[in-house]
Design brief:
Number of strands: 0
Radius of gyration: 22 Å
GO molecular function: transmembrane transporter activity
Number of domains: 1
Main location: membrane
Helix content: over 70%
Membrane topology: Multi-pass membrane protein
Pfam families: MFS_1
CATH class: Mainly Alpha
Shape: globular
CATH topology: Growth Hormone, Chain: A
Distance between the termini: 53 Å
Subcellular location: Cell membrane
Strand content: under 5%
Length: about 425
């Protein structure tokens, strides 16, 4: 007589045949391509400043305001997006976000006033891009990987740089030859093209396909978490009562100020001020993207092996030194010292992300992805402030020099803050729940 297991006995996944690649790596690959396809919107703002100033006579401060709203909402949406992914699933949230990005970017083609730029590129694209923020990478990594989390975080973080590499030269060529509108349309089409990939290949949880996370034990799919917004705010309230949160938020705000807010937004117009062609300056940014891939993946590997806070201190210190030298390197043509800066800075561009995510996970446990969403919000607020003030400084002083020097000094402060973060002993309760 055949024995039938009781209905209450949980079903276990079939053992995975030896030698077969774990499904988690395919999910990570799909997420990587998704982030690349959505990266066009992040590549465009720095290329828009000069053509919009020339066509509409808007000040660089006004254009920088739209970019700063975009960057701020990109960050402030991220923690809610992480909670929404827990509630509705990764595929639904990311697919809707990509369509919102596409709609906002496409609508800018018909704008005629500065407030429309702020509304469309700032608010609409900013809100949509928040769900494509690094909280997406953190969520995929936390769900699908137990081992190799640092490495996978580095790979997914590098996807944004890879997208920059893919899109920047093309967008710069379109802007220079055909104007900024075809470039905006290209960004919209790229976002739409990624939606089928997200829907067909991404899966929300390993249990959906009867697997355990890579390197971990099988667990049933958790029930959807209701009250996504309340949970995001509750996690923030708990984390905000702890010192590590403010140190992580402060260092990451400086990270955003010295990368997205400064170099990504203002490097091309700053180089153009020195007589460098826009396409050449955009090409240098793309090269930063090449070396960022190397640096970020290496940083993920280091994060699996070395203390995260010490890595952060080293990264910020090196970045600050490099920014102090940049004003002396800009010239009408690309010279070897500037190429050295591009390589050096590229290796450090977002190398800070894997150790920051690791510290959020170490300090806040299961809430680490949402806490990182709030830390990312500080990153984008820092970027937003410098994106705006950088344009104002250029209008006021006729040069970006003061912004480079101030950012270099801030990076030194971030290095000191990283070293102050205390380690949480293994087995201690996560501080967000305290």
């Amino acid at each position: 007589m055949t024995h039938t297991a009781p209905a209450s006995t949980p079903l276990r996944p079939a053992p995975r045949p030896a030698g077969r690649v774990h499904r988690a790596w395919f999910v990570a690959a799909a997420a990587f391509v998704t982030i690349i396809g959505a990266a066009g919107f992040a590549s465009l703002p720095g290329l828009l400043i000069e053509p919009l100033h020339a066509e509409f006579d808007w000040s660089r401060g006004t254009i920088g305001l739209a970019v700063s709203v975009n960057l701020a909402l990109y960050g402030l949406t991220a923690p809610f997006a992480a909670a929404l992914m827990d509630r509705f699933g990764i595929r639904r949230v990311v697919s809707v976000a990509l369509l919102v990005i596409a709609g906002g970017a496409l609508a800018t083609v018909w704008m005629t006033a500065a407030w429309q730029l702020v509304l469309l590129w700032g608010v609409v694209v900013g809100l949509g891009s928040g769900a494509m923020a690094l909280a997406f990478a953190a969520t995929v990594t936390n769900r699908w990987f137990t081992a190799r989390r640092g490495l996978v975080t580095g790979i997914l973080t590098a996807a944004g740089a890879s997208g920059q590499l893919v899109f920047l030269p093309l967008l710069a060529w379109l802007v220079e030859r055909h104007g900024w509108r075809p470039a905006a349309v290209t960004v919209a089409l790229a976002a739409v093209a990624v939606v089928p990939l997200v829907w067909l290949l991404l899966r929300d949880h390993p249990a959906d396909v009867g697997l355990a996370p890579y390197g971990g034990a099988y667990a049933p799919r958790p029930a959807p978490v209701p009250g996504a917004a309340r949970r995001a705010v509750r996690v923030l309230a708990g984390a905000a009562r702890t010192g590590p949160f403010w140190l992580l938020a402060g260092t990451f705000a400086i990270c955003g100020a010295s990368t997205n807010g400064l170099v990504r937004t203002h490097f091309v117009p700053a180089a153009h001020d020195h007589g460098m062609p826009v396409t050449a300056a955009a090409g240098l940014l793309a090269v930063i993207g090449v070396f960022d891939v190397v640096g970020t993946v290496a940083s993920g590997w280091f994060t699996d092996r070395f203390e995260a806070r010490r890595l952060l201190a080293v990264y910020y210190a090196l970045r600050g030194v490099s920014l102090l030298f940049l004003p002396m390197l800009l010239a009408p043509s690309v010279r070897p010292p500037l190429v050295f800066f591009i390589v050096f800075y590229g290796l450090d561009w977002v190398a800070t992300v894997p150790p920051t995510i690791a510290l959020c996970r170490e300090q806040y446990g299961d809430d680490g992805a949402i806490v990182f969403g709030w830390v990312l919000a500080s990153h984008q607020v820092g970027a937003a402030v410098v994106a705006f003030l950088g344009g104002v400084a250029r209008d006021a002083f006729g040069s970006y020099d003061v912004v480079w020097y101030a950012s270099g000094a801030l990076c030194a402060v971030a290095a000191l803050m990283a070293m102050v973060i205390r380690r949480r002993s293994p087995g201690a309760p996560s501080t967000a729940a305290a």
